[in-house]
Amino acid sequence: MNSAPQTTRPTLISPVIAFAATLFISALLMFVLQPMFGKLLLPLLGGTPAVWNTCMVFYQTLLFCGYLYAHWLTARQGAQRQIQIHTALMIFSVFALPVALPDNPSPPTAGNPAWWLVWTLFLAIGLPFFVISTTAPLLQSWFSRCGHRSSGDPYYLYAASNAGSLLALLSYPFLIEPNIGLANQRLVWSGGYLLLCACILFCAAGYWRNQSEDQLEAPSIDETLTPPSRWQQLHWAALALVPSSLLLGLTQFISTDIAAVPLLWIVPLTLYLLSFILVFGSWAERIRPWMLAAQPAVLTVFIAYSFINPATLPYWLDLILHLIAFFLAVMVCHGELARSRPHPQFLTRFYLVMSFAGMLGGLFNTFVAPFLFDAVYEYPIMIVAALLLRPGLLNGRWPLQLLFPLLILVAGLAVYFSTEQLFDYLDLIGGALILLAGISYALRHSPLALGTLTAVLLLFTLGLHGMASNVLYQERTFFGVLSVRDTVIPDENQKPEKVRELYHGTTKHGAERLIPAQITTPLTYYSRPGPIGQVFAEFDAENPRWRIGAVGLGAGALACYAKEGQSWSFYEIDPLVVSVAQDPTWFHYLERCAKQAAMVVGDARLSLAKEADASFDLLIMDAFSSDAVPTHLLTREALQLYFSKLKDDGLLAFHITNRHLALKKVLADHVNQLHLAGLLQEFQPETDVPLVIATDWVVIAKHPERLAKLQQSRLGHWQKLPLSFGLQPWTDDFTHIIGIWK
């Protein structure tokens, strides 16, 4: 039996245009819904990575379920039943509009809220998201049976779907978020969903018109076609899983080890979606030879400089190398996936395997890798896996392909175990590894040899970096990679001095001098000459029984401003930070200065909401120095919460040092809109004191006279917050990172 009629009935709109537009709208809505609903959840559950990870698992699982439904529907039902069942599902899903949180949502106050979150997501967006997730495989299957001249290869419509995803990805932070509040976003999205349902029905009508009576009653199956083998389906899964894992691994790696830049995750995801558009487009075969040739060529430079000797490159060039290598890897994998696509009769099975493998890749990076590795090692692992998936893996005598990499491995291990003074030869070893990286290009036609040699190079490279670095402790959780390092700096007498530092990714979160006389001296952003030191110097003597809350613990340097009789509480989202800061093996601030300070683990806004009103004299907000700024702690509603917890003469201090964002604009607007008083100091140290660094702080009070003492202080240069023009106030309904980019 033919999979599609040979002729199609004339219509006012070309089936290609109708189906492509519907797929485009579907993908657009899906990629807008995810960040939009994430922002709806933010004030409710806080910005913990566990929340985002749970949301991503929910989305990927529901996407897989949608593909499974499309596969079942097209394989088991005739055209008439397919349209009837799917129409009923769409009608039922419309009752979930507009998408919103359930009435009076109340997350559990004790225990893990993951199941509550999954249930909330299902009630709020489950049905609409499920319907959208079915669109790509279902409509392509329908199109393959419409009798159009291009119905024999409907996979090019997948390019239209990914074009919609790409447009949504770029539009949300740059167009939608800065111009439309969350309430209106929900209404516009709901209108777009109704339009999508109408478009699906239009496509269904075209599908119906071009089916014979037999095809309307039973699924159209050609018994002469051989279904994909189990090996072929495993190959599809590998070609989909590796790029999915590589995407998440690269995103984590570049934000951890290269540059903590907000919204940097958009770039890898853009390249990932672009690869689908290219490989499923009509020009895929012309691009393929160039991609296959460029991947090992770029890999040579990529391995030699970005992994073996990254210090020789500026961070932006290192970043570009990683992005190019990533793009070539996913282009090759997705290119082979597109080339091995089956007959349209097995289209839904193809997409089902793809979605399942993509879900496994996400689950591996999100839940498995953080427990297996103390750094982002899944990224180099997937670089090797992508090389092994190049065409021709087992061509030729594969045992001979392994011979050279194994010889290098044995030689490297022999050097490691036979040389005691390995540090004396690091430059020589690095040069040898760079030479081997260059030689690897000669193996470009042997994927097994190329992948294995690359694995050996990365193994030695990562091992040498671990030996050469002064990392004393490193652990990875949902919140990222936390490390304790020793650094040597010159002291006041220009003599070498060892300093203990705490890092979260590439962002320093505290430091401690190990000289006994200086071991309790607050350093970096919290130094006594700096703005927060000036605040304590001016106000600390007023009341010896102050109650102080600090959001963000770091190494605990702020604790050394504590005095007897005061009550201190630290609010920290990452329990590992608390564990490290309290361990005298690493840092001594808490042990020596504020051993009785309360540690409250969890999202700060949720934790502060439980505190008694008008109970704090000083609140210190120190959570904004990294790339992942918790915007829900900077909204107007958040500021109102803080002042409800402060006494009438209480002070609110914000640490806003950030390499990329001008957070003072947001606070200046709040101060103006809420009729508060605020002072800013952009501190630059006047003397070359070790680890006293430039830092920016804002202090806010209800009444301007409360800050008069600070403004008149000779300790620093405090000034009124500059007026911020043209900035829309940040609320729980609206935040816009791009608008405050430096």
Automatic annotation (TrEMBL):
The keyword Transcription does not apply. Keywords: Membrane, Polyamine biosynthesis, Transmembrane, Transmembrane helix. It comes from Methylomonas koyamae. SUPFAM superfamilies: MFS general substrate transporter, S-adenosyl-L-methionine-dependent methyltransferases. The chain crosses the membrane at residues 12-31, 51-70, 82-101, 113-134, 155-175, 187-208, 234-254, 260-283, 290-308, 320-338, 350-373, 379-395, 402-419, 425-443, 448-468. InterPro entries: MFS_trans_sf, SAM-dependent_MTases_sf. This is Spermidine synthase. NCBIfam families: MFS_SpdSyn.
